[in-house]
Design brief:
The chain is α/β, with parallel strands linked by helices and 323 residues long. It is 41% helix and 12% strand. The protein contains eleven helices and nine strands.
Length: 323
C-alpha cells in the first residue's frame, strides 16, 4: 500500500472532550489563574489587546500579539548594551506573550483522557503497513502520546515515525531519510509546549511527564490557532519552518491526503492542500454537524480549488477507520 499523508486538526480532541479542547476556555483559565502569568506580564499582554482586563479573545487579538512579538524580537536583535530601540517593558513583552501562549498550549496538552481503541487500532495497523506521514495542528497528546506508547517513534531512524527531535537537538538534517530508511514523518505544524531552547539555543523536546503548568522551560515554537500573520512566527522558528517545508514533501509523495477534523481556517495550510489537490487524491473527514452536505462541499471546493475530493461526514469523527 502506498504512503499517504494524514493531517489532523483540533476536531480530534473536540470529538472526545469539547470543553477541554476549547481554545477560548484555555485562554480564560490561564488568564484568570493567579499563578500562571505574573501580574506585570499580564499587564503587558492586556495593554496590547486592550480588553478591559479580560483574557485575549478571537483570532484578531491573538494575531495582534504574534505581530507585536515579531516586531519586538526584531528590534531587540538590533539593540546593544548602550542603545536600545525599546523601553524596558517593550524588551520584556515577547517573554510575557511567550509565557502566556505556552501556558495556554500546556493547558490544552495536559489531558488524561485517551482516544478509543476502536479508532487507534485501525490507524496503527495502517501506519505500520504504510509508514504514512502525520501532520497535526494542535497541542494535545492524544494521538502523539498514543503513538509513542505504542512504540511508533522508538528505534530512531528505524522507527515508523520521526519528528526530528533527537538527543543532540533539532536540526533540519535530522529529518532526512538516509541509508535506505523509509520512516514516515510526524510534523507538529503548530509546535508543541514540549519544545524548548536550551542554553546554547538548540531546540529540544522534554518528555511528556516533565511538562506541567509550572514548567520552567517556555516554548517559543508554538503558533496559537490560525492567526493571519503566523508566517512570521513560523519563520522565527527553525523547528516550525522545517516542519512546514517537509509538509510539502509529504504531500508530494502521498498517494492520498486525508484531512481529518480540520475546520479549514488555516490559510497557510489551505494553500498547501490546494497545491497538491490536483495531483493527489483528497479525502476530508469532518463532523456532520458542520453544515449540510451541499454547504460543506461548496466550502471545501473553495478551499481546495477543485471539485475532485471525497467528503466523509460522521456524527462522531472517531468512528472513522477507513484509512
Amino acid at each position: 500500500m502506498a504512503r499517504k499523508t494524514l493531517v489532523f486538526g483540533n476536531g480530534l480532541g473536540m470529538a472526545l472532550d469539547q470543553q477541554h479542547f476549547s481554545l477560548e476556555r484555555a485562554l480564560e483559565d490561564v488568564w484568570n489563574h493567579p499563578r500562571h502569568l505574573p501580574d506585570h506580564q499580564k499587564t503587558l499582554v492586556g495593554r496590547c489587546v486592550d480588553n478591559d482586563g479580560e483574557a485575549p479573545q478571537g483570532e484578531d487579538q491573538l494575531d495582534t500579539l504574534h505581530v507585536v512579538v515579531a516586531a519586538c524580537n526584531m528590534l531587540n536583535k538590533i539593540g546593544d548594551e548602550d542603545v536600545h530601540w525599546l523601553s524596558t517593558e517593550g524588551q520584556q513583552f515577547p517573554t510575557a506573550v511567550a509565557k502566556y501562549i505556552h501556558r495556554v498550549a500546556s493547558n490544552l496538552h495536559l489531558y488524561d483522557g485517551s482516544l478509543p481503541d476502536t479508532f487507534l487500532d485501525p490507524l496503527f495497523d495502517f501506519i505500520r503497513e504504510t509508514k504514512s506521514n502525520i501532520a497535526t495542528l494542535n497541542y494535545d497528546r492524544l494521538l502523539y502520546g498514543a503513538l509513542i506508547d505504542a512504540g511508533f517513534m522508538n528505534g530512531g531512524y528505524r522507527g515508523y515515525l520521526v519528528d526530528g527531535m533527537i538527543d543532540g537537538g533539532f536540526g533540519a538534517e535530522t529529518l532526512e531519510r538516509r541509508y535506505g530508511n523509509d520512516f514516515g514523518y510526524y510534523l507538529h505544524l503548530h509546535g508543541s509546549p514540549l519544545f524548548y531552547d536550551d542554553r546554547r539555543g538548540a531546540a529540544r523536546k522534554m518528555t511528556r511527564d516533565m511538562l506541567t503548568m509550572n514548567s520552567a522551560e517556555i516554548s517559543n515554537h508554538i503558533v496559537l490557532t490560525h492567526v493571519i500573520h503566523k508566517r512570521s512566527v513560523i519563520g522565527a522558528s527553525e523547528v516550525l519552518s522545517t516542519y512546514w517545508d517537509y509538509l510539502n514533501d509529504c504531500c508530494h509523495e502521498a498517494e492520498e491526503i486525508i484531512v481529518f477534523g480540520y475546520s479549514g481556517g488555516d490559510v497557510h495550510l489551505n494553500n498547501v492542500l490546494a497545491a497538491y489537490a490536483r495531483t493527489a487524491a483528497i479525502r476530508v473527514v469532518e463532523w456532520r454537524g458542520a453544515g449540510t452536505r451541499l454547504q460543506r462541499e461548496e466550502y471545501w471546493e473553495q478551499i481546495l480549488r477543485t471539485e475532485h475530493f471525497d467528503l466523509v461526514r460522521k456524527a462522531n469523527v472517531l468512528d472513522f477507520n477507513d484509512w
